[in-house]
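HOLO CASE FILE
Compound: glycine
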Amino acid sequence: MTHDVYTVPIRTEPAYDVLVGHGLLEECGMRIRAVASDCRVMIVSDDAVYALYGEKVTRSLEDAGFRTDAYVFPHGEASKSTERLIDLINTLAESGLTRTDLVLALGGGVTGDLAGLAASLYLRGVRLIQIPTTLLAAVDSSVGGKTAVNLPSGKNLCGSFYQPSLVICDCDVFGTLADSVFSDGMAETVKYAVLKDPALFGAMEAFERGGDISGIVAACVQMKNDYIVHDVQDHGERQFLNLGHTPAHAIEKTSGFTVSHGHAVAAGMMIMARAAEKMGISEERFSERLGALLARWDLPLDAPYSAQVLAQAAGADKKRRGSSITLVMPLAIGHCVLYPVQIGQLESVFEAGTR
Ligand code: GLY
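Model generated. Tokens follow.
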């Protein structure tokens, strides 16, 4: 069966394309030749992803004339550390990678963030290719240039904005994801539909796992472009992408990161949807329809913590600006507004959003 390949142009400075389709891992070398040729490629991947796809990607790159090396690290959030970052940068230096060579991130969010930050720092910047292998990385973290590692005092506190030269998303790889990891990606995908696309929300209500998700992924990436193109540094419109994320980050942090990002985002969106309903500013029964879709993917509809605990954790969020923080309030499927509140008001908003 043949499928279309969607090309979504990301119109940041520098601009680049996101390719979304099927069978793209086999063709990645040829696709990368459109942005770089005759150079070395350092493949950065975790041990689990490299075992699945390392050989296929290496073969495709070498068939297209690239010389390859690989940096393979232990999978898991613990690898998003300054120690791992320095080890990777040292490896790039020891292997003699030059400014005309490439770093290729093959994996999920941890890999993209780690490899992206290393690529932005090494030699003050070498070109980066992102090949996301989770749905969450495909619709969110591989696009838009946010890179980071964690510090002992918080998640993603050490990072940069650094756009890749190309993103290649092969939807075939989602077939090997555990259900809960696929659901993490569905939570971020639902977020885009709630932000501004009722038709996409309808498409997601009809979608079953195993179906062709490439059109949905391409629609999300197109929307991400629209939110970041005039606000790469996250001071304005890009903040819409944080729908549900203030309570979500508080849930992740309070759980010691045992609650995954997508699961926390689902609960966070529900908290904001119910809060908007209680304030009387959203469409009737909106949270019910949102909850029904999230529940189909076994995503949580509530936080396992009190509003007080969440507000305390959210008060230390890196998105805080002085004494205020900007929440995203969903009013209907496809319609949200930015809603700045004082840190002291967070508890009452979360309280309103608790069942
Ligand atoms: N993950 C949200 C953003 O890229 O801004």
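CASE NOTES: The mean pLDDT is 96. The chain has two domains: 5-176, 179-352.
CLOSED: yes
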